[in-house]
Specification:
The complex is a heterodimer of chains A (about 350) and B (about 270). With about 350 residues, chain A is an all-alpha fold. Chain A has helices at about 15-30, 40-50, 60-95, 110-125, 140-160, 165-190, 195-205, 210-230, 235-240, 245-250, 255-275, 280-295, 295-320, 330-354. The termini of chain B are far apart. Classes of the chains: A mainly alpha (about 350), B alpha/beta (about 270).
């Protein structure tokens, strides 16, 4: 057999196709499944109708079309975006810190967003305490501000003083900032026990109140984050040989790291602001992608976005159907299904490699 | 042309002075090896020349002060093989060697066909083509060392800094790697600045040796001038015998104190056969 010359690790077409297919399946499932089941074929036709110049007869009633475009579609799109952001940021953090346990909440995003949300919910108090109203509209803004504030503080603390500090200092600063913000959250919460239920539901993550408004809030940050991080895929590969070696190859490791962390944190903060703290996606999806499609960040990052988005959109389907008519927090679903799936992939990949 | 000119180099790390007033000149095409006891500052000297840490004094590379070189420019002039390079998990040999093309790839860009050709040439030259698709982690020590060298060569730099290039290898692989470096040096007109612990091997391959002790240059010159019983006794506190070899002096460690009688008779018998 003639030897096939080895090819450099690039994004493989078949994995890209698989990722896109996963997104399509998740989208159709997210739109078709619900209290009012809609036939997937009609859903697909109605989706195509959103394109300019396309007019297909989907056979859906105007009410069903409204359910589709005003209720389910924004929710599915939000799920795709949040999942993509968390998985992308997780992969990025893991590369920057060269640590497989790094997740996008490492530098205090979660604690900062949590504090912002807790304060926003507590300030509103029980004045408008109608269950159906949901969370105050100020929660996303407050969570976003808290998340960015916490990351900025981690940066400031982690890079203060001597120059040439390694990434470990930054992680420790993140731990300290997380503890600090969590303690304030706990104090505020303890002074406003009547809000615990709302805060708790926010912490477990939700796509329930998603409307196009939330999608528009997240979209610009998602675009910026995705562009910056995806462009740095090769640099993350270079960083995997260590800072000193990367510097010897002409890179500025510190500078790359700050740009990447800032971009990833921005996307995470925006995602957390609209969806709460959804665990597991940022940690697990990049690992699964790595085991399946190779370790180069040039394929890990884009595939994490696709599979992360699909995973979260599917998790949302489970969240709103498993215990219908009530909803299970999506963070519970991601961990409940994500953990066994991860173990399965881990075992299969090990066997394949050995 | 002078490849490296170091004048009055001083390096402080963590409050301690590691290098103090070090002068060093390496001419283009030369092989200079830095020797010295543990903690003498050998690796630090290489790291300073490779631009990997802050220093006082001056370092010029091919006539240009290192401070004036941009990082990418320097990466095209100097390539380093570290003592224990990080082995990125899951990375193929081809991808690892391709990292060496980084100084030629525009920021946020991707490697060109020409970059890939350079890498395939280097892999062929180092007899690594059949390993190109293998994960770096799965290679043996000798093969891995060749892959590290390949990445440095892919950088296209004419100055090669080798920090203990053979410390992880058995004696056969040590010779194999060093012969390879020497052949590359001749073929490609490279300049080699290395650090080594094995004094005999250091003397056999280098044109000149520099003996560092306590962060200062204690001696410099041809292997015959530096590898003397007296100098080695003073700076290594070692008891050695220096004997003549075909390619330079050979340094044989000898145990201090009187020879035990049983050992002596064995040595005599072996010597007699």
């Amino acid at each position: 057999m003639p030897a096939v010359p080895a090819q450099p690790a690039r994004l493989k077409l078949r994995w890209l196709a698989a990722g896109l297919a996963a997104v399509v399946v998740a989208t159709l499932a997210g739109l078709a499944v619900g209290a009012v089941p809609l036939p997937p074929g009609s859903v697909a036709a109605e989706l195509l109708n959103l394109l300019p110049g396309v007019r297909l007869d989907s056979g859906l009633t105007p009410q069903e079309i409204a359910i589709l475009t005003e209720l389910r579609l924004p929710r599915v799109v939000l799920g795709l975006l949040v999942g993509a952001m968390l998985a992308l940021a997780g992969g990025c953090y893991q590369g920057v810190f060269r640590n497989p346990l790094a997740d996008p909440y490492l530098l205090g995003v979660a604690a900062g967003a949590g504090l912002g949300a807790v304060v926003a919910i507590a300030l509103r108090g029980t004045a408008g305490g109608d269950e159906t109203v949901g969370l105050p509209a100020t929660v996303p803004v407050a969570a976003f501000a808290g998340a960015l504030g916490a990351v900025a503080l981690s940066y400031a603390v982690g890079t203060a003083g001597r120059r040439d500090r390694g990434p470990a200092t930054l992680v420790l600063a993140g731990v300290a900032v997380t503890a600090f913000f969590t303690s304030i959250s706990t104090y505020v919460l303890q002074r406003n026990v009547d809000t615990i239920r709302e805060v708790y539901s926010w912490i477990l993550g939700r796509l329930a109140t998603a409307g196009w408004h939330d999608v528009l809030l997240l979209l610009p940050y998602a675009v910026v984050t995705a562009a910056v991080v995806l462009l740095h895929g090769r640099e993350l590969d270079v960083l995997s040989v260590g800072d000193e070696e990367a510097a010897g190859l002409g890179l500025h490791p510190q500078r790359s790291r700050y740009i990447l962390l800032a971009a990833a944190s921005l996307g995470t903060a925006a995602a957390v602001a609209v969806s709460g703290l959804i665990a597991f996606v940022g940690l697990i999806v990049p690992h699964v992608v790595r085991m399946l499609a190779g370790t180069s960040y040039r394929s890990v990052l884009p595939l994490s976005m696709l599979f992360g988005g699909a995973f979260l959109a599917l998790a949302d389907v489970a969240a709103r159907t498993a215990a219908a008519p009530s909803e299970i927090p999506i963070g519970v679903i991601t961990a409940f299904f994500g953990a066994p799936f991860f173990v399965l992939v881990l075992r299969t990949a090990r066997r394949g490699a050995g | 042309m002078t490849a490296v000119e170091v004048t009055g180099l001083r390096v402080d790390l963590g409050g301690a002075r590691i290098l103090d007033d070090v002068d060093l000149i390496v001419e283009g095409g030369e092989w200079v090896t830095v020797i010295g006891p543990n903690g003498a500052g050998k690796s630090t000297l290489l790291r300073a020349i490779g631009g990997r840490l802050r220093f006082a004094g001056s370092i010029a590379l091919f006539g240009t002060p290192a401070a004036r070189l941009r990082r990418r420019e320097r990466a095209r002039l100097v390539a380093t093989v570290a003592q224990t390079p990080v082995v990125p998990p899951g990375m193929s040999v081809l991808d690892y060697v391709l990292l060496g093309r980084t100084p030629y790839i525009p920021p946020l860009g991707r490697e060109s066909v020409a970059d890939l050709e350079v890498v395939h040439d280097v892999l062929a030259g180092l007899d690594l083509t059949r390993f190109a698709g293998r994960e770096l982690e799965t290679l043996s020590g000798g093969e891995r060392q060749r892959a590290f060298l390949a990445r440095a060569l892919a950088q296209g730099a004419t100055l090669l800094l080798l920090d203990e290039p053979t410390s992880a290898l058995d004696i056969g692989h040590q010779q194999e790697v060093l012969e390879l470096v020497d052949a590359l040096r001749r073929d490609r007109g490279l300049t080699v600045l290395a650090t080594m612990h094995d004094l005999s091997i250091a003397g056999e391959y280098a044109d000149r040796l520099v003996l560092l002790a306590d962060g200062r240059v204690a001696a410099a010159g041809s292997p015959r001038e530096v590898l003397t019983q007296e100098l080695l006794a003073r700076h290594y506190r070692a008891r050695v015998r220096v004997v003549d070899g075909d390619h330079g002096p050979l340094v044989v460690p000898v145990r201090p104190g009187p020879v035990a009688s049983g050992l002596r008779s064995e040595a005599t018998r072996e010597g007699g056969t």
